[in-house]
Amino acid sequence: MNPPRTLFRTRIKFCGFTRPGDVRLACELGADAIGFVFASGSSRRVAAEEARAMRQALAPLVDAVALFSDNPVDEVREVVRQVRPSLLQFHGNEDDAFCRGFGVPYLKAIPMGGELADQHPSALHMRYPGAAGFLFDSHARGGSGGSGKTFDWKRIPVGVQKPFVLAGGITPDNVFEAIQATLPWGVDVSSGIESAPGLKDGDKMRHFVEEVRRADCHVD
Ligand SMILES: O=C(O)c1ccccc1NCC(=O)[C@H](O)[C@H](O)COP(=O)(O)O
Predict the structure, then answer these.
(1) Structural domain includes residue 108
(2) Is 59 domain-assigned?
(3) ipTM
(4) How many structural domains compose the chain?
(5) Known catalytic residue: 217?
(6) Cα separation of 148 and 204, whole Å?
(7) N or C: which end of the chain has fewer CB within 10 A?
(8) Is 121 helix (H, G, I), strand (E, B) or coil?
(9) What phi, psi does 76 have (nearest 5°)?
(10) Which stretches of 164-201 are DSSP H helices?
(11) C-alpha of residue 134 to centroid of ligand 1, in Å
């Protein structure tokens, strides 16, 4: 049985937006953060100008997160300049110095598929001392996120001292169980709230938020 987390509210990040209308709806439904993907090769990739327009659709008190995977430094700088994200998220082999170099807090995505390396909490903290938190995602090292696949949640390292976000294959149907099993700071979803890559589905977003709230109120 997990210890109760009195009055705890699991943060919700919806990722991979391509349409301002979806951003507006996600904010109304209760998302805490909205993610824009700039990783090359992603079907959800947007240009800085598009993300800037979507950022303007954001409600107050909702974070804009810019997501990268081994993008060149100039690309990251340009996104920061145009979009003004409140948080960066790095999915590639970026080191702490690179991630810190933009003057914006960052989350480091940790690949939980395939061979696990460096996932011991002390190794993570030593490798990314500047990280605001970690995001555990299902891809293997060198792979992409946004796969819609889960990983074995038992692989999450015990004793991580920074907030962590659970990602990878979370849906309205498994987010309750995912929160109960892992007690994350937040959950991150892309495929599970879509009708097609990059196109968000209002009913799925609403159901997802309802299930997170249900998990937060649940007492064993
Ligand atoms: O979404 C992408 O296409 C993507 C490409 C490269 C790196 C990361 C990417 N997405 C990350 C996310 O959307 C989420 O952080 C996470 O991977 C959850 O995705 P999903 O399994 O689809 O819910």
Answers:
(1) yes
(2) yes
(3) 0.96
(4) 1
(5) no
(6) 14
(7) N
(8) helix
(9) -65, -45
(10) 175-182
(11) 14
Tokens of 136: 């555990």
- pTM: predicted TM-score of the whole model, two decimal places: 0.95
Least confident of 18-22, 54-58, 154-158: 154-158
Q: Active-site residue among 22, 32, 99, 137?
A: 137
How far apart are alpha carbons 140 and 120 in whole angstroms?
Answer: 16
What is the spatial distance between Cα 50 and Cα 39, in angstroms, rounded to a whole number?
14
d(CA 193, CA 17): 11
1 inside domain? no
Catalytic residue among 15, 32, 99, 188: 15
- Pocket-testing residue among 36, 88, 144, ligand 1, by greatest number of atoms within 8 A of Cβ: 144
SS3 123: helix
User: Which protein residues are within 6 Å of ligand 1, measured from CB?
Assistant: 15-16, 37, 39, 42-44, 67, 69, 91, 137, 144-148, 167-170, 188-192
**Using CA positions, which residue lies closest to atom 13 of ligand 1?**
146
Which ligand 1 atom minimizes the distance to the CA of 89? 15
- pLDDT value, residue 182: 96
Domain of residue 96, residue span = 11-215
Query: Does the active-site annotation cover 15?
Result: yes
Q: Is the pLDDT of residue 136 over 70?
A: yes
Of 148, 128, 131, the residue nearest 139 (C-alpha): 148
Helices (H) and strands (E) in the chain, counts: 7, 10
* Predicted local confidence at residue 59, as pLDDT: 97
CA distance 130 to 105: 8
Residue 178 sits in a domain of what CATH number? 3.20.20.70
143 pLDDT tier (thresholds 50, 70, 90): confident
